[in-house]
């Protein structure tokens, strides 16, 4: 039983570290989004390590939102956190 508890604690610690790294990556791309009147919010990180984000402001509904998400945000996150499998819009 003790091993299971330690495994659970390690998983929680890993999730916290991953979340911190994702936030760090988002903070790197945020100024570029804000320069265009937009922003980004982290919605969740799923168990299969999919990051769900929400583009806000001018980025929400922009015709280039998908390109921004894939070429900018996803690349930045996956470079910082290789464990992440994909980034999607929530």
Could you describe the 3D structure shown?
With 90 residues, this protein is α+β, with helices and mostly antiparallel strands. It is 56% helix and 22% strand. The chain has a three-stranded mixed beta sheet, with helices on one face. Strand 1 and strand 2 form a beta hairpin. Residues 1-7 have low confidence and may be disordered.
Key features?
single chain, about 90 residues, alpha+beta, GMP Synthetase, Chain A, domain 3, 3 strands, about 20% strand
Beta-strand portion reads 15-25%
- The CATH architecture category equals 2-Layer Sandwich
Lateral strand order in the biggest sheet: 1-2-3
Mean pLDDT across all residues, rounded? 89
Q: Which spans of ≥5 residues are poorly predicted at pLDDT below 50?
A: 1-7
Helicity range of the residues?
Answer: 55-70%
Q: Regarding CATH, which class? A: Alpha Beta
How many beta strands in the DSSP annotation? 3
Largest sheet: 3 strands, mixed
| CATH T-level fold name | GMP Synthetase, Chain A, domain 3
Query: Which shape, going by the Cα principal axes?
Result: elongated
């Amino acid at each position: 039983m003790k091993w299971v508890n330690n495994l659970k604690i390690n998983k929680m610690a890993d999730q916290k570290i991953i979340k911190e790294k994702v936030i760090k990556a988002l903070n790197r791309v945020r100024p570029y989004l804000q320069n265009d009147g937009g922003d980004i919010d982290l919605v969740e990180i799923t168990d299969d390590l999919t990051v769900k984000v929400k583009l806000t402001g001018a980025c929400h509904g922009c015709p280039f939102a998908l390109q921004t998400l894939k070429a900018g945000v996803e690349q930045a996150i996956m470079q910082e956190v290789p464990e992440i499998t994909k980034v999607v819009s929530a």
